[in-house]
Amino acid sequence: MAERRLTAKGRVTRDRILAAAADLVQRRGVAGVQLEDVRRAAGVSGSQLTHYFHDKRTLIDDVISWQADTTMDREPVPESFAAWHRWADQVVARQTARKFQGGCDFGSLAGQLAETDPETRAHLADGYDRWLSRFRLSLRRMRDRGVLRADADPDSLAHMLLAAMQGGVLLSQTLRRPAPLRDSLNAALTQLESFAR
């Protein structure tokens, strides 16, 4: 269902279902979540759930998009070296507060679902592409303002920064300590700063 056709109350209900589903998937994994679990967690009726989501696949596809949006919305787009360091500090602080459990909300979905089918992988790729686009935009602006040298490649730097975060989060989740995440982000920021004018 196109979200733009929903009433304000409908959007609130749909978002509540998506938030409940995302939380359950984060804690139990996709395979461990059934529609009835989501219905109970969201506090909606079965007819409300099927009004917004025809089946589990529709729900999970929309959770992917919703998770990509909410993960990115809480991240300001850094446009200075100091802002990139604040971003890294926030990533480490958020994972530390969670005691390194659950990993990256979006990355965890990607790890579970990337190989399930081409359509789901395409939804995940779109989420990562949107995230990379935000990073590229920031890096291009920094280059255009002369903060970065002209030979700085926003595509390559965006890939490096996002991969450092995702890989660092996964290692810290597994090892239950901050050092892998902090070290990977520091290495990426050092590389970024090597392009300073």
Task: Pick out its properties.
single chain; mainly alpha; Arc Repressor Mutant, subunit A; Tetracycline Repressor, domain 2; 2 domains; about 75% helix
Textual characterization of the structure:
This protein has 197 residues and is mainly α. It folds into two domains: 3-66, Arc Repressor Mutant, subunit A; 75-193, Tetracycline Repressor, domain 2, CATH 1.10.357.10. 73% of the residues lie in helices and 0% in strands. The chain is built from nine helices and no strands.
Note the gap between the termini. 48 Å
Largest sheet: none
What is the CA-based Rg, rounded? Answer: 18 Å
Strand content: under 5%
Domain count: 2
Poorly predicted spans: none
Helix/strand/pairing class, anyone? Answer: mainly alpha
What's the layout of helices and strands?
Blueprint: H1 8-28, H2 35-42, H3 46-52, H4 56-73, H5 81-97, H6 105-113, H7 118-144, H8 154-175, H9 179-193
Helix pairs in contact: 1-2, 1-4, 4-6, 4-7, 5-8, 5-9, 6-7, 7-8, 8-9
Question: What is shown here, in short?
Answer:
The protein has 197 residues and is an all-alpha fold.
